[in-house]
Design a protein that fits this description.
Blueprint (H helix, E strand, L loop, with lengths): L1 H7 L4 H34 L11 H11 L19 E2 L8 E2 L3
Antiparallel strand pairs: 1-2
Helix pairs in contact: 1-2, 2-3
């Protein structure tokens, strides 16, 4: 809002041209405030700590949760892929093994 006040007193053309897009950004921010709060409560209720990572807010964390769905196929933390990839089959002939990257 401070930016809008600064632009309102600026007679230059670029200030005038910036006012409308800036107003739309603030409108979008107001429109998304309530859904962001709902997502934040769902993410908090899930018990994950993704939002403690710098740059991950409730929207990114909720998207991650919706795509991963269930991590139970990986019985322990050491068996879970550390880099976000699924295990790949690395079998050859009679040798059966899985490669999980890393």
């Amino acid at each position: 809002m401070a930016a809008q006040r600064l632009l309102a007193d600026d007679p230059r053309v670029r200030a005038h041209l910036s006012q409308r897009p800036l107003a739309r950004v603030f409108d979008i921010d107001r429109e998304t405030a309530e859904p962001k709060q709902h997502l934040a409560s769902y993410v908090t209720g899930s018990g994950i700590s993704l939002t403690s990572v710098y740059g991950i807010g409730p929207i990114i964390a909720a998207r991650f949760l919706s795509e991963v769905i269930d991590i139970n196929p990986y019985p322990t933390g050491t068996r879970r892929p550390a880099n976000g990839t699924a295990p790949l089959s690395a079998s050859s002939g009679r040798t059966q093994r899985t490669y999980s990257g890393g």
